[in-house]
Write a structure and sequence with these properties.
Blueprint lengths: L4 E7 L4 E6 L1 H8 L12 E4 L10 H5 L13 E6 L13 E6 L13 H12 L4 E6 L6 E3 H13 L1 H4 L1 E6 L1 E6 L8 H12 L3 E5 L9 E3 L7 E6 L17 E4 L3 E4 L5 E4 L2 H23 L5 H10 L2 E3 L2 E3 L2 H7 L6 E6 L11 E8 L3 E8 L2 E5 L4 E3 L8 E7 L4 E5 L1
Helix pairs in contact: 3-7, 4-6, 8-9
Amino acid sequence: EEDEFKEGKNLEEIDAFSGEITKEALEKLKDEPTVKAIELDRTFSLSLTESLSIINATIMHNKVLTNNITGKNTAVCVLDTGIDYTHSELSDNYLTGYDYVNNDNNPMDDHGHGTHVSGIVEGSAPEAKLIHIKVLNNLGNGFESNIIAGINWCVSNKTAYNITAITMSLGAGLYQNYCDSSFVSFTSAVNNAISNNLLVVASSGNDGSTTSISSPACIQNVTAVGATDKSDAIASYSNRNSLLDLLAPGSSIVSTALGGGTTSMTGTSMAAPHAAGSFSLAQQFQYEQCSQHASPSSIESAFKNNGKIISSWTRIDVDNAIGSSDNAAPLLAIYQPKNITYLERVNLSINYTAVDLFLESVWYNLNNVENISIVGNSTVMPEGGFYKLNLYANDTSGNENSTSV
């Protein structure tokens, strides 16, 4: 009956819908055989930056594969309080979005948190586009159904906007174990995003718990991110337990402010967008290296296995993580000496190029005798005879190449 149920969100991607229902109608719905599950549409809240050099993101910005590794040709979906897309630091990166709080196409921030988070994503990946889905109101609260609708929006528009990651700096409750069974609809939306090759990132929460983390970070396929402080230690406020996947800077992070300028905020909310932006750098690198994006699990593993260990967790190191997925050998070319006969014994110039984002060392030998390290161009004066100059280079991932004249 119309007076018993008022429909809210149609979440058709996961065969669900939300709405307001009377107690009497709820009892009827429980007995409906076609209904698989009924869940409370819970309320989520905010889980409240010099940090880029700590995670070695700026190093990657200056490296060039096809383009500088800055998040070019990627986009990040930010689910938060909205974005001040008129901000001078964000306007060029903001692409589009949606407001599920007011059900319109204008996700203007009326709180400030989402603008700050968006600035951190842009700082981590300066050329990544920003997609903002407003799911939290001016008080920083929002329904679970809005967040699920936001995730579904990002999945549906993934191809149109080259979206590579979803980041959520929000949370509810504390959970010691994976909470998938407690958030069936939410988990379904997350799993759908993962199956569509979208990384899903969430902040672990700010209760200072050492045994639990918040939802949705506790969903198994979500990358749960906790915070480090200015001394690169785990922040005292950061929730963490065995479910925590990564750490990133979260204390006193200076980023974009609602209305212009900057402001400083602290929390795991600031850590999650560092990770999301960094993942976009990794996806850009992967695509330019092999013309396809990596799976969410392989990106997460690369960051987990190649960062700085703090207690039992890994603080992200963008340069190391991306370097670990490098499978291309350095490009080598010798310009001098020429493949000719020199008629007198003189200093012969060794002019060459060795190009690799993660170049480690270059060396040469004459006729396979005595390897000599070389940095930049050099000279050699061999005795009379016939020689083969062999030039070698490797990178930090162990890829090696050689050429000779």
